[in-house]
Design brief:
The chain is about 45% helix and about 25% strand. It has about 350 residues and is an alpha/beta fold.
Amino acid sequence: MILGIDTSNYTTSVALVDDDGKILKDCRQVLPVKKGHRGLRQSEALFEHIRNLPELMHTVIGDQPIKNALKAIGVSVAPRPIRDSYMPVFRAGTGIAEILSDAIRVPYYRLSHQEGHIRAAMCETEIFSWQHQLDANWQRQSEPMLAVHFSGGTSEILYVKREKKGFQCKIVGRSLDLHAGQLVDRIGVMLGMDFPAGQALERLANPLQTAPLKLATQVVDGDFHFSGMENAAKQSLQKGEEPANLAYALFEAVGRTLGRAIIALLEKTEVSAVLFSGGVMANEIVKEEARKRIFAFCRSHRRPVSLCFAKPQYATDNAIGCALLAKEAFEAEQKKACND
């Protein structure tokens, strides 16, 4: 068995997978945010993780004979797989992993939250293809792809290649101001919803098939802006726009922005697959608008491509990706040791 731990800005997550990669346990606890507030300070989030971890760890491994069965631990130690990437919240999970690793003498692998998102998104995907067929083992292939990570703390498009441990990630598109999840939560809180507001805002928008309101988007060479949408949304509300119209227009604009950014990057790269992860990518309106726009480009340019959308349970923050990456890194080390 392999244990995964992730302590992100807003969710404490612990997962356990078996030697075949089957998910045995997946436990998560969303951190509480006071009504009317738009987030947590790092110190507040760190405290909540420290409070949540003992109970989640007991739920995941309390009845498991881990002393002889646990082979490795994977833990997110930073937001991104780049030098100097750091947030205090990840110290909570890292500390638990280090203690457990020393106590039962198993290796632990230092991973990033972003890599965990990418790997978890590969677990189960909804794949839409235009004249392109993904190999059955595409999750393990080394061919580069684009990976979208849209959440409350990140809005990036990455050029990704598999490595022996985790992924090599290069940012090729990103928000130059607000993150997509920040935008959604700010508008939701403005409408009186609890933080995080994504699901409640989507429920408000879902009954609409079209909306009379359209928010402008700004995309340049794969980079984009969301702050203008926030200002436009505030102005619309002040003018008496219906909240349901605004909710739909907001998600439609995020999807349109993402679609335009992906198209700009497809024009500059040779990739044939795009993976979508992060909590915002669980939104059906965002997914549909991005897919529709990208496929229109593919048809007109005869560009084969597959769009792989993570199922909602794998799109949001979790520790499954860390567990699976640790499993694969452990297996690679074992194979190398046998060959040597």
